[in-house]
Amino acid sequence: MAHSLPHAESIYREFHFMIHSRTAVIIPALNEEQSIAHVVRAIPKKFVQEIIVVDNGSSDRTGEVAHTAGATVLSESRKGYGYACLRGIDHALKSEPDVIAFVDGDLSDYPEQLPEILRPITEDGCDLVIGSRIIGERENGAMLPQALFGNRLACCLIRLLWGYRFTDLGPFRAIRVEALQRMNMTDPTFGWTVEMQIKAAKLRLRCTEVPVRYRKRIGSSKVTGTVGGTIKASVKIIYTIFKYLFAKV
Fold first, then answer.
1. Structural domains of the chain, count
2. C-alpha angle with apex 222: 193 to 236, nearest 5 degrees?
3. pLDDT class for 150, splitting at 50, 70, 90?
4. Rounded Cα distance, 47 and 23, in Å
5. Which of 102, 105, 115, 197 is surrounded by the most beta carbons within 10 Å?
């Protein structure tokens, strides 16, 4: 009889998720025709109010494939990760979710881990949860050396300047809508993730990380896959950190 208790507790926790939290998932996507359906279908639907794919000017069938897989598809012609996220947020807020989660469209993340990302918010009262690839399990070669170095540098600066300890700027994350609205997010491109974490620190929000698995993406990275992309992203991240050193949220 005792063996049934963990199972009963698990069922209760899942039920708690479903009735106490309305979650929208935003997936920025650019030329992810090969992977986007796998990402949409891997998201546990019982935890989600709406799955929103923001097609950021793809030249392939990303939007069509995402729609067929069951996602709401939006179009954002202005190229930039932040632009896509802002477009998704604007739409998501119309349905008044409690939480907004973000996941990439290249299948490098494991979307089925969404309940693990949500749990610190729904059960522990956290405001922002980062899925950390650094403390999680990474497939060999999934994160290139320049990405690892950039993450380490940015997280060290955030800890030094604002006293918040992060290990990753990972894209797989979730945030309370109330906290997100206080942030007034603005970055249109590579600085989006670090802007969110800096503003969380400056607002003294309750933040945590959970370990997530990470694998090689389908296709090549738009950021760290090229020397030019790596340099642009690195400069933008460092610029964003020092931009908010004295700026108000």
1. 1
2. 45
3. confident
4. 7
5. 105
Instruction: Return the axis-axis angle of helices 192-202 and 145-162, rounded to nearest 10°.
Output: 20
The pTM assigned to this predicted structure is 0.89
**CA–CA gap between residue 233 and residue 249 (Å, rounded):** 22
Identify which of 43, 4, 2 has the alpha carbon closest to the alpha carbon of residue 24.
43
* 36 domain-assigned: yes
3-state secondary structure of 189: coil
The answer as to whether 249 is a domain residue is: no
Longest dimension (CA), the chain: 60
Tokens for 83, please give them: 């632009």
Q: Is 131 exposed, middle or buried (CB count within 10 Å of its CB: 0-12, 13-18, 19+)?
A: buried
Within 10 A of 59 (CB to CB), how many other CB atoms are there? 8
In a domain, 248, yes or no: no
What are the backbone dihedrals phi and psi of residue 111, each rounded to the nearest 5 degrees, phi first? -60, -25
* Residue 231 pLDDT > 90: no
Q: Is residue 220 part of a domain?
A: yes
Q: What range defines the domain where residue 188 resides?
A: 4-243
How far is it, in rounded angstroms, from Cα 248 to Cα 238?
17
Phi and psi at 203, nearest 5°, equal -85, -5
Amino acid at 177: V
Least confident range of 31-45, 112-126, 148-162, 235-249:
235-249
Confidence of residue 216 (pLDDT cuts 50, 70, 90): very high
Q: Is 244 helix (H, G, I), strand (E, B) or coil?
A: coil
Of residues 190 and 111, more confidence is placed in: 111
Helix axes of 114-122 and 4-20: crossing angle, nearest 10 degrees = 80
